[in-house]
Amino acid sequence: MPTAAVRTPVLVAGAGVSGAITALELAHHGVPSMVVERAGGPSRFADRLLISGRSMALLRRLNLADVLRDGVDPDRPLDVLWQPEKDGPPVLAARLPSVTELTRAYAEAAGGTAPAEPYLLTGEPALTVRLRRAMHRHPLIDLRTRWILSDVRADRDGVQATVIDAEAGTRHVVEAAYLAGCDGADSTVRRCAGLAMDVVGPAFPHLTVYFRSPALAGRRAGPSEVITADITLIVGHDGDRCVAHLPITAGDQVAVADPADVLQHRLGLPGDPPEIVAVAQRPGVPAVARTYRSGRIFLAGQAAHQAELSGDDVDTCIGDAVGLGRRLAAAVRGRTGDRVLTGYQRERRCAALQDQKLARRARRIRQEFPRVACSGARGEEGVLRERVMWWPSLSGDAGIAPPISNGLQERCRHRTPPI
User: What's the predicted TM-score (pTM) here?
Assistant: First the structure.
């Protein structure tokens, strides 16, 4: 039996990156919200996220930039290494300068071309914990964890959602003027609203393996991303924790059954097998919602768009959250009525489709890279550097650019709304 209805101007489903920032953006404009999240803690899938300077400038408005950088070493650059063979030397090594180096370079840049903030390299669990802590502290945000949204009904006047408190075993009805569906790839909000997804590219089935390997982490002094023909390895951004993306075929049960053995074979790891922390088998189907809105129900983040690899679209998720939060706040406060909401889909769906275009380009470059490298090309030669220099990294950031080239900002300009 449901309890008495709870009322809130905006109900946010999901307390991940997009849900948390949507609620914090609403609060920034003085609008209360309730956030319901089915999980009790952060995800065990420790994906590395590279948040661009453009997105960090948006988060600075919410007093989050310093909070998110706390404890992150600003003096470590990120190396991206292209290796045709796992044991061979890289044919191209590119470096994303450290936060300290970029801060100095931006201070010296003339004409206002440099971003206001450098990028941030962090892990998804740490980011989620800090965002939820910020929500807990804000008096305008009512965060309910272990609350599972099970049903949504909407009419022209508002939204009514049924939510189950998993700990207490009670059912609640939440009435809201608007609902923001930020509940991930398997979005309940999207399903209840009947919003379809369009597949926008070929599938990339893969295993994402999260593991510990002191030997592997000790090979380099700082964070690095190593790209070979049959694996992409992310190492050094969180102690001895590593992340490997292993392309697999639809029937490749060997990799699924024994990922540790596959890692040792593909990486040539010495000694004992790596300590597997978690494994996720993902279809890697890039998709974008056909529409981001159904009446008073909106989609944002991975509920609206799904990248091949987890974390690829973090900047777009942040842009969705800021854009939707700002527009909903204006509508709730009655400044422009429904007119302010009509541009949300056009703006954000365009950003998601552009992301998918960049991802397809990156896939083509990856497929061509072994052939070009085996032909004898090396990093100093124009043919190889031109092909991969602007390759967008797995984390969805700017790719590789000189410190003052503004590449970090340029590649992400389409992904984030203006400040």
Answer: 0.87
